[in-house]
Amino acid sequence: MSSIVVLLKTPAFRKLFLADVFANFGNWFDFTALMVLIAYEWKMGAGMLAAFAIAQGAPMIVLGPLLSVWVDRLPLRNLMTACMVLRLLISVAFFFVPNFYILIVLVFLRCTLASIHFPARQAVIRQLVPADQVQEAVSLGQIILYTSQIVAPALGGALIPVIGVRNIFLLESVMLLLSTVFLAMLPNILRANESKNSSASGQNKTAQYFKELSEGLSHIRSNSMLFTSIILLSVGMLLVVLYDGLLVLWVKEMGLGESRYGTIVSALGLGSIVGAVLAGIWKGWLKAPMRIMSFTALLAGLLSAAAGFGTWHLFSLSWVGWTVVFLLFGAFGAAASIPYSYILQTETPQHLMGRVSSVSSSSLNAATIFGPGIGAFLAGYWGIGGVFVFSGSLLTLLALLIFLFINPRPKQA
Known about the structure:
Structural class: mainly alpha
Radius of gyration: 21 Å
CATH superfamily of the largest domain: MFS general substrate transporter like domains
Number of domains: 2
Strand content: under 5%
CATH architecture of the largest domain: Up-down Bundle
Number of strands: 0
C-alpha cells in the first residue's frame, strides 16, 4: 500500500488521478440519469435501450481504432483537455435534450470523445509513470473504475427523487469541469512522433495514415504476451457478459429472494475493489503476469460453472455461501484485469500506445455489446444454469490451456 501512496505523492500523476476520479464518477452519474430518463420519463422499452447500448458501444468498437492514429500524433494534454471540455458541453446539452433521437446523437458523440480520451490516458500513464510504478498506476485506475461503478449509481439514484433526473446532468457537468481543470494542469508531453508528423509534407497522407494504423495491429500480432492477454481478456469478457444480464433471473431461479439480488451485486462490486487493491499491493505476479492472469481467469470460470450447477441442484449453498462465491468472482475478475493492464503498458512502445490500447478497448467493448444478446438467446435453449455452465466451462478451459501451454517470456520484477 505504501508504494501506491508514494505514487500519489507525485504531482503530475496525482493530477491525472484526480481528473480520473471526477470523470469516472461523472460518467456513472450520467449513465444512471440516462437510464431513468429513457425508461421512466420517456417510458421507452427494450428496443430503445438496445439502441442506446449500440450508440454507446459503436464508437469504441469502430471509431476508436481509426481515431487512434491521431492520439499518437497530437499533444496528449491538449487532446485530453479538449475531449473533456466537449464532454462537459454534451453533459449540459443532456439537461435540455427534448427527445430520444437527439439524445442518441449526443450519446454517440460523447462516446466518440471517450474513444479518444481512453487511449490518450493510457499514453499519458506511460509517459508520466516510471516503469517500476506501472503496477500501482494501473491498479489505482481499476480501483477508481470499480468504486465509481458502485458508489455513483447508488448516490445518483438517491439524488434523483430529491433534485430531479435532469439536474444530475448539471452535477455531472461540475465533475467534468473539475476533471478538465486537473487535466489542464498536467505537464505538456511532447513525443518524438509529434514533431515528425507536424513537419511531414501533405503528400500521400492517406497512405501514411493506413501505414501508421497497421503498425499498431502488427505490434499486437508480433508480441505473444500482448496478443495472448488481449485474446484471453476479450474472450473472458464475452463469456462473462453472456450471463451478466441473466444474474437477476439466476437469483430468482435459486429462490434467494429479491433482496438477495442487491446483496450479490454488491458482493461482486466489493470483490472487484478488493481484487484490484490486492493486485496493486502484491508484486509477486510481476515476474509472470500472464500466468496469474490465466490462473485467476481459471478460478473465475470455475465459480461461474458452479453457479450454473447450483441451478441444476447438484449441490446447494445458503445465500451467504453464494454471496461469498460472487465476492470471490469479482476479486478474481479484477485480479485478472490488473496484469492485463500492466502487460498493455509494459509491452507497448510509447509511440504506439494510442493505437494498441484502442484495439484492445475495441475488442473488449465488442464483447460487452454482443454478449448479453447471445446469452439471452442461449438461455432460451439451455436455461439460465446452462449459460452459466457453458461460459464458465469455456473460460476455465481457455485459461487452463494458456496457463499450461502458452508461456510468454517472464517479466522482471
